[in-house]
Amino acid sequence: MKKRLFTLLLAAALLLCSKPALGDYSFSADADAIEKAADSVFMLEVYSYNNRMLATGSGFVAFDSSLLITNYHVIEGGSYVIAISDDLDEYLVSGVCGYDKNRDIALLCFDKTTNVAPLPLDTDGNLKRSQTVVAIGSPAGLRNTISIGNISGFYKNSGKDWIQFTAPISSGSSGGALFNDEGEIIGITTATYASAQNVNMAVKVEEAIRLYNKWDKKTVAKMGNMKGYSYPTASQQKDAKEGTIVWVSGGGKKYHNNPNCSKMRSPVQMDLMDAIEQGYEPCGKCYK
Fold it and tell me: Catalytic: which of 28, 48, 66, 73?
């Protein structure tokens, strides 16, 4: 009887040990969860008033499926953004719900509704050094690259509340998502120190939450009306208005800024936004 009881107790102990305790979940070890989160992170292509690409960066959907968070410096000087998803779907973004240049945050609005799931945001701010973090962004245009590291420290500098972390990022990662190990966004990846080894910075997500709470949930301005935007001359404004029209040809996969481009035949006019939504990409010759 004693032997049987000992065996049952041993089996129960082994069963308990085999089950993960509550609170042992690790987002960084959950590949499926990271893949799902990447669906809500975008590579951003920023374009000027005359449809020339100025920069690339990253952004992510938060609060609801119509809103995109990124860094202010990513979109500064741009007229609109094309947001490219993990599945290569393209979305036009030209509305601004709010921005803070000093804290390097911008809250943007998709031009049309999406079905993209908003990512969860950390609201308690209980961050400590050595905690595991996961970064998702598009360094050097490499869409939705994943990197894992730790929180190194916390700093306040130039109006920004920084998280220092070791998950590798580089140019193009700006505006990307920094997650804690529970799968919540704690920061917006913003900067890396080229002269130091793996010293990277993110603006705390609470800055984006504060910006969202200040927004009246109604007013949406055009990106070209942001402070710091270089307004075109009267002649350039005329070109910009004309720039909403592009040209495509039957069977082609590119849209063109010039109807005489040698890369196309029998040009047909099309609205730029329609071309983007139909999957056309900018011509490499017209948009160098």
Answer: 73
> At 144, phi and psi to the nearest 5?
50, 55
What is the mean pLDDT of the segment spanning 65-80? 95
Report residue 227's pLDDT band, with 50, 70 and 90 as the boundaries.
low
The pLDDT assigned to 251 comes to 74
Q: How confident is the model at residue 248 (pLDDT cuts 50, 70, 90)?
A: confident
The two tokens of residue 108 are 């943007």
Phi, psi for 218 (deg, rounded to 5):
-130, -45
Tokens standing for 58? 């990253």
Q: Residue 84: which of 105, 112, 56 has the closest Cα? A: 56
Classify the C-alpha dihedral 94-85-68-99 as positive or negative. negative
Quote the pLDDT of residue 1. Answer: 52
Which of 58, 100, 104, 173 is catalytic? The answer is: 104
Q: Which CATH class is domain 35-118+217-225?
A: mainly beta
Catalytic, 89? Answer no
Q: Which CATH code, of 1.25.40.10, 3.40.30.10, 3.90.1140.10, 2.40.10.10, is assigned to 132-207? A: 2.40.10.10
Q: Is 174 a catalytic residue?
A: yes
Contact 92, 68 (CB under 8 A): no
Rg (CA), the chain: 23
Out of 28, 48, 174, 181, pick the active-site residue. Answer: 174
User: Does 111 qualify as catalytic in the annotation?
Assistant: no
